[in-house]
Structure formats: C-alpha cells, structure tokens
Amino acid sequence: MSANGLRLAPEKSECVVLTNKYRYREPNLYVQGCQVPVKKAIRYLGVQLDTRLSFVDHVRSVTDGSRKATTALGRLMPNIGGPSQSKRHLLMSVVHSRLLYGAVIWSEQVSGNQECRNLLLQAQRHAALKVARCYRTVSDMAALLLARMSPAFLLASSRKRIAVARRTGVIFTKQAVETEIIQGWQALWESTPKAAWTKRLIPDLSRWWYHGPRQVSFHMAQTLTNHRCFQKYLWTRDRAYSPACSHCPAKVNNAEHTIFACVFWSEQRRDLALSLGRPVRPEDVQDLLCDPSTAKLPTDYHQRGRILSCSRRRREMFVKMVERIMGRKEELERAAVGSGSVTYNVNPLSRFSFFVFLRNVFNRISVENDLALVVVVTAEAVSRAKVESSGVVKDIFWGNPAPSKIQRWVGG
Ligand SMILES: [Zn+2]
To answer: Which of 5, 89, 344, 381 pairs with 115 at a CA distance of 20 to 30 A?
Structure first.
C-alpha cells in the first residue's frame, strides 16, 4: 500500500469475521503494532456487513433513516389539502432511495427473511400513509396499494435480477420488470390476512396499477380502508359508545353500511344507481374506479369511445357520491361533538384508556367552545372530566359515585 502512496490509519480500523458458525474464536489482529477491534457488524461503503451476512443490521439502519426522512417530509403533507398525490409520491421517493441503497448486494438474503421484509414494509407504510392521505391506523398492505408504492423487497429483488441479466447480456424492458413486480405483489395481496375490506373492493392489483386513479382523496381513502369516521371503527378504539349506525336501526356502521346500504344516504346514491340501473354494490368499486382494461374493449372506435366515456362518467358520479356522504357524515359528527356533551365507551378500570380518550377529545373540541363538559358513562362507573379548548384538564372525577351525583353531573 505504501508503495502506491496509500496510508492506513490502524487506530481507525475495525474488522468483522464472516462465518456461518455460531461459535468461533475471535482473531487478534495487529496492524502496525495497533490492535484492530473485532466487531459484530461494520459499515463499508454505506452497507452494514454483519458476521453472517444476513443484512438485518443494514435493514434496521436504513429503515430508521427513512423513518426520519418520512417524518420530516410528512410535515409538508396534511391529509386535507396540501400537495397532489404525484407530488407527494415524488417527495417520498427519498424514502425508496434510502431503503434500496445497495439492494443488489442484500436483496437475496433479505427476501427470505421475514423480519427484514416486515421492517421494510413498516418503513414504507409510514410514507404511504402520507402519500395516500390515509388514517394512521391503516395497514401497510392497504396503504401501499392506495399510494401505488410496490413493496421494497420486491423492488430490491427486481434490481438484483436486472443487474444479473445485464452481466449475461440479457436486457429487461421496463414493462417486463413492472409485470414481474405486480405478479409478486398480487400473490402477496391474495395471501395477506390484512386489508380485508380493501381487498374485497380491489381484488385485481394489476388493474388498479395500470387503470386505477392516480389520486385518492382523504374521504375516498377512508371509504377504501374502512378506517376513521365509522362507528364500528370508533367503537373498537374506545371512541364511540356503540358500533350501531346513528342514522338507521342497523347494528353495525362501517364503510360498507355507510356507502352502500344506509337508507339515510339514499339521496346521495340516487344518480349512480340510476346510471347502473340497480343499487351500487362493493363489488362495483373496482369497475367504477378503474378504466376498463384495453384488451376487453371492442376494436370499433366509436363503441370504444362510448364505453370509455360511460366509465369516466360513472367514476365521477362515484367520487362525488363518496365525497358528499363522507363530507356530510363528518359535519354531523363534528356537530355532535361540538354540542358540548359526549358519551363515550371507556374502560373505567384503565386510566390509560381514559387519557387516550381525553387526548382524542382535545383534538375534536373546536376553539369556539370556551368550555366543554365531557361525561363518560360506562356500565360500571361514571367519570367526568372538565376540559378547556386549550386542552387543559380542569377536573377529573373517578370511581363509582352515587346516582344523585351522576344525575347532577349529567344535568350540569
Ligand atoms: Zn345506517
């Protein structure tokens, strides 16, 4: 090295033993009289190399970095308003470049490791939630679909295959690479136990990818994921007294009931039902949101044009219907909370649950309300909290009070 004019700094050097053995003797290495420490993993050209070359340490490190980038970029992307989905996608491409750095080296080991796959999916999920304006509890599978972000480990595998093919002189087209990723993603989509409702609405991933909408609004994301302003969802998270619909006698209010069945919203569904000649069903969503596939269209120019314009008209009607229903539903919910007295189902034995509930209430109280009185009624106990719009808890009562006291509180 010194003959070539290179100098080594032995005090800054470290080494890693590459072996498949669980037990091995660490070597004592000396360079220019200085002992080189043996580490479990070292960073070389931006990639963490661990003893068994599993790249778990590398994946942990890049997912941590991409989370920080997502948090920083996410501040630019509110769920309502903010940049369009294509701009969000562009901004979040930073996350992919971080996650997929050196993918050619580690993709093979990572694809077979469930822990690494999960870490990559979780990091992507944070970015996808912001891109597709989804609520924070939406699963990784549903968020990736709505954000049109392919799973990172599939992208990594495709990069590896392209690199190997280039060495052998074979050239992959962009279309062939994309088709391969979509096929892998479809298999994952069909096997996942997550995102059951989204899977029911959009079973064919390639149709969504090639012919689906390029932008999903905040209300459409709620409809497609069954998360947020539905009684069933709120009830499972201790934020509603019951899962029943507040507009009709139905025992469960979820996205399916609200958008497709509840009689309260019949007027909003009328135009689309007239166009279809029957009531709209969850099974129609894929056809309504995605253009018909080119292979199925007739060859006649005029017929093709008629089918495409009809499809676009129905898509507009469906989007309008969802926006009208969800927008009004939100208004009604806000009005109910803003009236000052709200009843929630909270486990009285869990103070944590109660404080989570209070935090949620703070987020909902409008600034115009100087003081809101919140009454928490459960089967076993009654608790009361007086909160101000600033979020300061004035007074909390805890335990099993006498019925007369409850009456006074509820009345007061
Ligand atoms: Zn209903």
So the answer is: 89
Crossing angle (nearest 10°) for helices 103-111 and 114-131: 110
**Both structure tokens of 274:** 């007239």
Tokens encoding 197: 């409702």
Query: Among candidates 210, 96, 190, 212, which has minimal Cα distance to 146?
Result: 212
pLDDT digits (tens, 9 = 90+) for 165-209: 888 888 778 888 899 999 999 999 999 999 999 999 999 999 999
Encode pLDDT of 331-380 as tens digits.
888 777 655 444 444 444 444 455 555 555 544 443 333 333 444 433 33
Residue 253 · residue 231 · CB < 8 Å: yes
- What is the distance between the alpha carbons of residues 225 and 242, in angstroms, rounded to a whole number? 20
For residues 208 and 290, give the distance between their C-alpha atoms in angstroms, rounded to a whole number. Answer: 6
User: How many A from CA of 168 to the centre of ligand 1?
Assistant: 61
Q: What is the whole-number distance in angstroms between the Cα of residue 228 and the centre of ligand 1? A: 16
**C-alpha–C-alpha distance, residues 163 and 155, integer Å:** 12
Distance (Å) from CA 328 to ligand 1 centroid: 14
pTM given for the model: 0.76
Compute, in angstroms, the gap from residue 264 CA to the centroid of ligand 1: 6
Between CA 290 and CA 272, with CA 205 as vertex, the angle to 5 degrees is: 30
Inter-CA distances, 267 with 246, 272, 299, 317, Å:
17, 10, 37, 13
What would the two tokens of residue 97 be? 């470049």
Torsion sign over Cα 188, 194, 196, 197 = negative
For residue 298 the two structure tokens come to: 């007739």
Q: Which two tokens stand for residue 34?
A: 């200085």
